[in-house]
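Practice problem 4.
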């Protein structure tokens, strides 16, 4: 699926802004999500996720994971958009909730993670209602997740390797630090003396 939900009722995808996150507080009210939360709930497996924090006027990436290292299931909502020629596009958005006090140090909102014991409950859309799963739409408890800074290599989509989730080393941080820019003083041009007696000349 492509990240960025595209509701089925959209006429022209080129004129619609893709929805990457659905707020837990309003997911049942928003037209873009209210059908998906009832009928098309899904899980997105992950080892963790990234968040950026401004430090010394630079955005530093951090990898966030469960403290026990167990993979997580992100709460997702799916839609299939069908075009006028029968083409289909499967899209997905992640449900978010307010962050706990510790995670709020990085960002005030976090992805909703579904515990393994609630996987079946979250995925069961048989009753055509979201009432039974609304209690699951909350952020992790305080202390449940930990994080560490990672290399800014994660900022490039071309980079896709296991090193992207490892803690950054002192050497890597130093190498990534912006180099100071030397200011070059520009000399003012020496005044040109005129021999026209102050009258001005076109030639």
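Answer key:
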């Amino acid at each position: 699926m492509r990240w960025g939900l595209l509701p089925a009722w959209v006429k022209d995808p080129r004129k619609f802004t893709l929805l990457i996150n659905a707020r837990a507080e309003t997911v049942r009210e928003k037209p873009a999500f209210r059908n998906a939360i009832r009928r098309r709930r899904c899980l997105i497996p992950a080892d963790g996720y990234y968040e950026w924090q401004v430090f010394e006027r630079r955005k530093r990436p951090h990898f966030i994971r469960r403290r026990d290292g167990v993979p997580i299931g992100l709460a997702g909502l799916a839609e299939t958009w069908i075009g006028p020629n029968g083409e289909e596009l499967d899209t997905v958005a992640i449900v978010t909730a307010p962050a706990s006090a510790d995670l709020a140090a990085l960002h005030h909102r976090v992805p909703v993670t579904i515990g393994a014991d609630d996987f079946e409950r979250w995925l069961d859309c048989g009753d055509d209602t979201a009432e039974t799963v609304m209690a699951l739409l909350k952020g992790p408890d305080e202390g449940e997740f930990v994080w560490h800074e990672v290399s800014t290599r994660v900022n490039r989509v071309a980079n896709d390797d296991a090193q992207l989730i490892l803690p950054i080393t002192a050497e890597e941080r130093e190498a990534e630090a912006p180099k100071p820019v030397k200011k070059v003083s520009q000399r003012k041009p020496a005044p040109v003396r005129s021999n026209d007696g102050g009258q001005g000349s076109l030639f």
